[in-house]
Specification:
CATH architecture of the largest domain: 3-Layer(aba) Sandwich
CATH class of the largest domain: Alpha Beta
Helix content: 40-55%
CATH topology of the largest domain: Rossmann fold
Order of helices and strands: HHHHHHHHHEHEHHHEHEHEHHEHEEEH
Number of helices: 19
Radius of gyration: 28 Å
CATH superfamily of the largest domain: P-loop containing nucleotide triphosphate hydrolases
Number of domains: 2
Structural class: alpha/beta
Strand order of the largest sheet: 3-2-4-5-1-6-7-8-9
Distance between the termini: 72 Å
Number of strands: 9
């Protein structure tokens, strides 16, 4: 079917792009980010644009004379149509002022050709005889995502280019006006100093036993990051979006969550609720509360959110609730390992930080010391391997009453509402413990310094 039609192209726009460069060489800076040589349909236009880019990279002027010399130097002048074609390009270009518009037309037709090629490759995948439908869908999705982003596959890069990118990122951190790829802050100074913020492409795992507050801390971090300007997505597999919104409101308005849920609020509370809703409604935060979904669906939704609104931080609550691809009798450990690898892959593909909550095994409660360890991550050792950062929440007051604490640790103050955040793994930095104060009635964690200030 595709062979019957000519592939989409706009030769007039292609000629106008190169003609604009010959009229005004400085216009290259306006269009260089919009198109690449391979976006041109006609080979001679592709050769001319590539030569113009070479001239620009060497800080040389771009005009008919210099372009002809550059094409001659690479033995391509005749293939590009010679001096007569360069003169033709100038004569058919109305003005160089519209170079960006011409470039966008070229980019559009290039995208359509890429889409046709993607459809062809997807059809080949569709005809393959395979039992792994999810893997097939992921392949097709990757092809389409490459069309949307213009970055089909990662390949080898020279070390020089990697260091150039590193220096650009350092400059962005030093100059907030340039910052677009900087780490997200958790909102807790001690934790941010230890981690250096939440880094893009990282998978951060927050593990705890039930009722320790892992969902609360994850959402607190999400709100803090959003208030700092990050775009945040939340996959809430355990709670509905209404429940989650109410918990966020209780924490922000600092109203007892039980009273808020029952509607037992005072007139002063009503004003705080209104003010808080006004603040929270402006945050770039998006919630998906679909209860049963697998990595294919989550990956697609995250990509769509990234393309439509941008995405910096993705919260997953929690990892063990993500559906695997296996049937009932399949190995759950193997499924969780695959889910963990997929979450890490998603962090890299979208250049975001993925913070996922994780359950811990019952072994924590059976030990004399209840402090979590990396081996306590439930269902898979792969989580520990894939994660860039692993943090645990540990609260002694969940295991001892005040009387039991006196017998267990005489002379030491009872750690009421004190939560130890144990950074047990930090791939690119130190590990340590920090303390936060858990306001259980408000469903929020605060820094110890903030609590002592009140």
């Amino acid at each position: 079917m595709y062979a019957e039609k000519l592939l989409p192209h706009d030769l007039e726009a292609e000629e106008a792009v190169v003609g604009s460069l010959l009229i005004d060489g400085d216009s290259f800076v306006r269009i260089s980010s919009l198109i690449k040589p391979e976006d041109f349909y006609r080979e001679r236009n592709q050769l001319c644009y590539a030569a113009c880019r070479s001239l620009f990279e060497r800080n040389e002027a771009i005009d008919q004379v210099t372009l002809a010399r550059e094409l001659s130097r690479t033995n391509q002048l005749e293939s590009a149509g010679g001096m007569a074609y360069l003169s033709h390009l100038v004569s058919v270009t109305p003005t160089s002022a519209h170079s960006e518009h011409y470039a966008q037309l070229v980019a559009r037709t290039s995208t359509m050709r890429t889409l046709i090629d993607a459809a062809s490759r997807i059809s080949v995948i569709g005809y393959d005889d395979t039992d792994d439908v999810d893997a097939t869908l992921r392949q097709a999705e990757d092809i389409l995502f490459g069309v949307r982003t213009g970055q089909p596959q990662r390949g080898f890069l020279p070390l020089r280019q990697i260091y150039d990118q590193y220096l650009e990122e350092r400059a962005a951190i030093a100059d907030p006006l340039l910052a677009s790829d900087t780490p997200m802050l958790t909102g807790y100074n001690d934790l941010d100093e230890l981690l250096g913020g939440m880094q893009r492409s990282d998978m951060v795992v927050l593990g705890a036993r039930p009722a320790m507050g892992k969902s609360t801390l994850a959402i607190n971090v999400a709100i803090n990051a959003a208030q700092d300007g990050a775009t945040v997505g939340v996959f809430s597999l355990e709670m509905s979006r209404e429940q989650l919104a109410l918990r966020i409101l209780a924490a922000d308005a600092q109203i007892d969550s039980h009273r808020l849920r029952l509607g037992l609020v005072t007139e002063a509370d009503e004003q705080r609720i209104t003010d808080s809703i006004g603040r929270l409604s402006e945050l770039p935060m998006y919630i998906d509360d679909t209860p049963f979904q697998g990595m294919v669906e989550m990956r697609s939704k995250a990509r769509r959110l990234s393309l439509e609104h941008g995405l910096d931080l993705l919260i997953v609550d929690y990892l063990q609730l993500i559906e695997g691809r296996g049937k009932g009798g399949d190995n759950r450990v193997q499924e969780v390992s695959e889910i963990s690898r997929s979450l890490k892959g998603m962090a890299r593909d979208l250049n975001i930080c993925v913070l996922t909550c994780s359950q811990l095994s019952r072994g924590v409660t059976n030990r004399t010391s209840h402090r979590p360890m990396l081996s306590d991550l439930r269902d898979s050792g792969s989580i520990e391997q894939d994660a860039d950062v692993v943090m645990f929440i540990h609260r002694e007051d969940m295991y001892y009453t005040e009387e039991e604490w006196e017998q267990h640790s005489p002379g030491r103050p009872y750690p009421k509402n004190i939560a130890e955040i144990i950074v047990a793994k930090h791939r690119n930095g130190p590990i340590d413990d920090i303390n936060l104060y858990f306001r259980d009635n408000l469903l929020r964690f605060d820094s110890i310094q903030r609590v002592e200030a009140f």
